[in-house]
Structure formats: structure tokens, C-alpha cells
Amino acid sequence: MDPSPPCLSFIGIVDFSQEAKWIYMTPSVTDLLGYEPNELIGKPSLPLVHPDEYPRVKQLHYDTIQLDKAACLVYLRMRHKDPYKGYILCGISRTVVHNVLVGSVSFAQPGAKALQNASTATEITVLTPNATNFEFRRWNDPSPIALDPMPPSMNSPASPTPSSPTWVPSSPGSSRSDSQDRSPTPDRDPGHLNFDNLTFQSYRTAFILNRFSVNCTIEYCTNDFFLRTMDAIGRPFFDFVIKKDEDVVRSWIDCVKGWGVNERGQPSDGGFGFGKFTLIPKGRDSTERVPEPSPTRHRHGSNSISRARPTRAHVSRAERLVEQHRVDQSSRESPMPMLVDAIFSAHSDGLMVILRRATP
């Protein structure tokens, strides 16, 4: 029997305070760290970090917010509720979403899943000394070995650099290069950090969707920038995707779901997917309707009257019409369809979609 725990993950949201207080988390936190969500909501998250890594984690928290980062990954140790289990090596993803940090916490284990997570992240930071095997390098990352000076006669034309006009950053939504993003956070005294001076960042919205439903029902959203929370919660996510883009967005979500399966076949995390589609804030009806059966004709008893009781389908249809009328009325002043950039990720008990308005 494999004694190592499976790769599980939970979605978490923290605020911009220096303690990074928990605002929201999904129930899988219990499987990973042993805590119930109500034990952590409103409490600081940084005290769960290993004491040796706390100063750098606090600095990293500050830098992530200040630099408005997205789809970043860090490996560090977090305390389990059971003292006999000590500290768990975790991979933590994070994205700045206007006034909160949204991400996930997963059990870190070397292998194909760690490679998948790292290959799709825009930045990787490894804080735990014995976790260097989680480092991931790309061809354009700087060499860790200092190069000897080359004779002038052997110098070749310089390759494009981040400062040259031909440089195109590869990380979505970021103007920084991979090599800059992947540089480790320096060891600095976090006592000088002033979190009160941090301002709200990019206009992004994070949606948490039901991973196990066909239509990916919206369960939580962080703000009302793109969709009004009262209109969005409980509705299929695809209600807000323009019809011509629905199939491709479904394929993207199916793809990240496929990535997000651990070695035991259980739902887990699996890296980031990036896409662009047209969002319709006023919504539409994306669910397929089953045609209602025709009324049954009675062969006998022409004088008899049949009074059919309202079925569940009829009630649901009536409620849907009322709801659609209300949405139509309230959305007359809603913004027109807009092109958005999206970051998709799958986790043990939910899907996460982070949106921002795309540049033309």
C-alpha cells in the first residue's frame, strides 16, 4: 500500500492584509490539512507556514500583490492540524484578483503532475530547501552557472532580451519575462513592509464553478465587475458565454478537468489553461430543453375531464420563465458582450475561472 497521501487540492481566497486572512475555502482543506473550513475562515493563513519559511512567504505575499501577478506557483510547508503529521509540503497557486488573492493549495509530490503544474505556471518559487526537485526550467531561463567571458571574436549577435523591441513575454497577462518571474524572492526582513499602502489591482473576477455538473454552475464569485453576483450564483457558467464560443470553452474546461486527476484517479489540480472568449453579462439560456410530451387523448369516456397535476418539469419551466423575465428586465442596462482573457484551473472540489477584459 502506498503510504504517501494522494494529490488533493482545495481552493482558497485570502485578503491583502499582512496576515493574509482566509476569506473563502472549499471543503477539501479538511482532507489536506485536517482543518474544517469554519476553523480557518477569518483567521490568518501565514501562521500555518513553517517558521523557517515565514519571512520569505510574507515577502512573497507582498510582492505578489504589489506586482499584480497571476498564475504563479510556490512550494512551501504548511502545518497540519494533527501534530503527528507535522508540516505538509504544498504547492500553492495564486493570482491577484483586484482586492484579494485567489488560488489553491495542493499536496506536492514529484512526478508528472508536478511537471504539468510547473509547465503551465507563469512563475515558480521553491522555498523549502529539500524541494529543489520541483524546480522547473525553460529554454529562455538564465543559466544557473555563471558563464566564462567569451572572446570578442566569438561573440554572436545578441538574442532578444526583455528590454529589446522584439521581445514578446510568454506569460498571459504579464509584461515580465519568464526569467524575471522565476527569480527567487530575496531574503529580506519583512518587518519593513507596509501593507496599508497596497492598492487595488487589475480588474479581474474569479468564479468558482461546480466541477461535477455538466453546466458548471457558478457557486461563488469575488466581485461584480463582469456579472452581478445575485444574477450569477446558481446559474450555469455557459449562460454567460456567447453561443459561438460555448463549444470551445467547454473543451477548455474538459481539458483542465482531464489534467486535474491524481494518481488514484481522484479529482485534483492540474495546472493552468489560458483562453479568450466573448462574455455576455446579461446572460442567456444555455441549457438544452427536452420537448414536452403531447397531451394524452382519452379513448373512452368523452364526458370525463382529466385534470393533470403540475409536474416538476412544468414547475421548473415556469420558474425558469419568471427568472428569465427578471434577468431580462434587470439586464437592459447591462454592458454589451465583451472579449475577456480567462485562466482556467481544476481542483479537487471545484473549477476556477479568472477573467479580465481582453485588450483589442
Automatic annotation (TrEMBL):
Stretches with biased composition (Pro residues): 149-163
Disordered as annotated region, ranges: 145-194, 283-333
Composition bias, Basic and acidic residues: 178-191, 316-331
CDD domains cross-referenced by the UniProt entry: PAS
PROSITE patterns per UniProt: PAS (PS50112)
Composition-biased stretches (Low complexity): 164-177
Domain of life according to the entry: Eukaryota
Start and end residues of each PAS domain: 23-68
Gene3D superfamilies per the UniProt record, alphabetical: PAS domain (3.30.450.20)
Stored InterPro entries: PAS (IPR000014), PAS-like_dom_sf (IPR035965), PAS_fold_3 (IPR013655)
Name under which the protein is recorded: PAS domain-containing protein
